[in-house]
Amino acid sequence: MNLHFKCPKCGAKMDFDAPSAKFFCRSCHQEAAVANYQNSFQTSNVIQKTSSYDDEEARQYICKKCGSVIVTDNRSAITHCPFCNGQSSLGGRIAGEPSPTALIPFTISQKNALKAYRKWKLRLILSPKELAKQQKNKKLIPVYLPFWLYDLECHGEARLSAETAAAPKPDETAKAAAAPKPDKNTAAEIKHFALYRQGQIALPALPLYSGKSIDKKLIAHLPPYDMRQKREFELGSLAGRLSEKCAYSAQELHPQAEKAAKTAMDDYLKTDLSEYTSAAIEERDYQVTAVQTEYLLCPVWLAFCDSQDPDYMFLLNAQNGEPALLPPVSKAKAGVVVFLIAVFVFLILRLITVLMGGPLI
Predict the structure, then answer these.
(1) pTM score, whole prediction
(2) DSSP line for 178-231
(3) Which of 65, 161, 187, 281 is 20–30 Å from 177 (CA)?
(4) What's the pLDDT tens digit per position in 293-309?
């Protein structure tokens, strides 16, 4: 127990006794019981699914421009990087290095991906000139992106501060009839509460991008995948496809997973507090466990861009056909369009006025 509560009577620090589930004040002997206190939580066994490439089973290529590492099967070869179009050269042996254990298959065909890309490019009319120029004659490339898939459990406790705000009680009916109307600025009665909550949640199938080639902003806007469709990885799935190599281990990304779990735990502990006007967590003590981790490949269609701005890259979820981001809008072009629309509406209204016998000017 690392949480600290102040005695509501004298303000001194209160100690917690787990066996009795009570807070005690040594100064004034005030007691406060914790309803439904749980001494311990049951956790699952930790499982990490692992696999590795066999000898001569796959090849890796390293981009000389951006440093991306691309994995193909041993029958494929690439000369240019799918992320920046830089020259790529054959890297060292990949045998014995971690390989994916699962993947989500491509369900969006190249034909449908091209339709989505053309629709995306229509918005380039309002985009900066350099973006429209860079995206001209670009090819769509099917790529698998690496993710670590976490199944997490989080349990713990938190101290919250809460408030209730009640409007002032109105006067009796007889007095209210003779009294002036209440001021709208009359302050409400605010009551403050110190709350203690504990709980346990499961956070299954949390994917975290483990590559380096795609900007985090773009990945954050990539529409989520349906993890129910994942299947066991087979090297044959890379035929005609490219795969970015995993750059970070599950342990290296665990702090990100832990942060996501703690945020979910915060939201969980703040549920069912509708009787309070507001509630905020002041202190918390959580334990996060990665029950299972898995190296997963997720499919995308992408069109690289010369610019380093992630807004300029086309990235399509190849499972559901939704793009990560729409092209940015040029304020200058948008202003011209708004001006032309305003002029057009004005001319139409003037024409209607003249047709109805009104003055031309």
Answers:
(1) 0.76
(2) HSPPPPTTPPPEEEEEEEEEEEEEEEEEEEEE--SSS-HHHHHTSPPP-GGG-E
(3) 187
(4) 999 999 999 987 665 66
